[in-house]
Amino acid sequence: MSQNNSTNVCVDIREELEAEMVDVYFPVIVYLSLFMMFGIIGNVFTFYIYCYKFEISTTQMFVVALSVCDLLTCAICIPFDIVLLHHSFTFSSDIVCRLMVFFVAIVVISSGFIVFMIAIDRYRLVCRPLEEQISFENSKKILLSLILLSTFLSSPMLLLHSQGNRLVRQCGNIGEICSLTKSWQRTVFPFVYYIIGVTSWLLIFIVLMILYSLIAIRIAEIDKVKKYRLSQVLKFSSIASQFDEGEDEETPPSIPKFRCVRRHSLHPTQTNFIFFVITLLWVTSYVPHFISIFWKLSVENFYDTVTQSDQQLSAFLLLSYYPNCAINPYVYGLCNRQFRVELRDLFHNIRALGRK
């Protein structure tokens, strides 16, 4: 009888601690919920517009793939982590823990590879326009290969994360949590795995910055040549008009043509700027994540050792890559005029259907 009472008391204590941790994690939960909501909405519109409103191209294929990854992140991965924050003492399913962490890793790594391929595609289009480009069909094969590679690279997560126990005051390790596997945490394997991850991230960051720097230099050169040619044409038109007064009335209509050419020439620059911003967001979003990972690896029994405020901070840092997935579609909207036009037309059509 006394043993049953003791068990019930421990269960009550565990539930109280979990409710207390939900309050601690509440800012993180709200933060994730907002990005989840805006991310789902934004990525659905991005997927639809790039799939059905834009011309079929390699760039379009990569953008659609990135929006799918971002949508999966916002619709599945973020809710999973919200569940983990709600069940920091009572997460009992080892299979769900391993599979979901594995799935999150696949989606996140795939997103990184796609961002990298977008940079390569932009570099080839701008800096190597006369060479053979990545075809639409080849882009599909590349994406499939990237997903398979991401799956392979994510497979260690099936071992590194599992359902484990955590301390519940005087009741012992009766708490259940999905976190780094304690048996592996005592080995060098997790540290080596994440060191390889950080090194790969740094190399990708360096390559991406080099590619976009070369793209920026090339675009500046192209713009310089275009401005020079435009000034020569305008100079020639001005000289010609001095010899033939009859040309004066025909000259103004020619000016909009030059403006049209200039406006059209801005599209590649805007597109490259969009992808540069997305790349920068992706790269910077992982700095806090890796800080949190190595913080956890350096502290044995992290959740039983650190304070509640440290656990809250760790959660913020660990999940720092999620906002990037929600922000991407809004970067398209702010920086891409064609995207805004298509989105406006879509809303007009929806409104028109609602009136019928």
TrEMBL record:
<keyword id="KW-0297">G-protein coupled receptor</keyword>
<protein>
    <recommendedName>
        <fullName>G-protein coupled receptors family 1 profile domain-containing protein</fullName>
    </recommendedName>
</protein>
<feature type="transmembrane region" description="Helical">
    <location>
        <begin position="24"/>
        <end position="50"/>
    </location>
</feature>
<feature type="transmembrane region" description="Helical">
    <location>
        <begin position="273"/>
        <end position="295"/>
    </location>
</feature>
<feature type="transmembrane region" description="Helical">
    <location>
        <begin position="62"/>
        <end position="87"/>
    </location>
</feature>
<feature type="transmembrane region" description="Helical">
    <location>
        <begin position="99"/>
        <end position="120"/>
    </location>
</feature>
<feature type="domain" description="G-protein coupled receptors family 1 profile">
    <location>
        <begin position="42"/>
        <end position="332"/>
    </location>
</feature>
<comment type="similarity">
    <text>Belongs to the G-protein coupled receptor 1 family.</text>
</comment>
<feature type="transmembrane region" description="Helical">
    <location>
        <begin position="141"/>
        <end position="160"/>
    </location>
</feature>
<feature type="transmembrane region" description="Helical">
    <location>
        <begin position="315"/>
        <end position="335"/>
    </location>
</feature>
<keyword id="KW-0472">Membrane</keyword>
<dbReference type="Pfam" id="PF00001">
    <property type="entry name" value="7tm_1"/>
</dbReference>
<dbReference type="InterPro" id="IPR017452">
    <property type="entry name" value="GPCR_Rhodpsn_7TM"/>
</dbReference>
<keyword id="KW-0812">Transmembrane</keyword>
<keyword id="KW-1133">Transmembrane helix</keyword>
<feature type="transmembrane region" description="Helical">
    <location>
        <begin position="191"/>
        <end position="217"/>
    </location>
</feature>
<dbReference type="GO" id="GO:0016020">
    <property type="term" value="C:membrane"/>
</dbReference>
<dbReference type="GO" id="GO:0004930">
    <property type="term" value="F:G protein-coupled receptor activity"/>
</dbReference>
<keyword id="KW-0807">Transducer</keyword>
<keyword id="KW-0675">Receptor</keyword>
<dbReference type="InterPro" id="IPR000276">
    <property type="entry name" value="GPCR_Rhodpsn"/>
</dbReference>
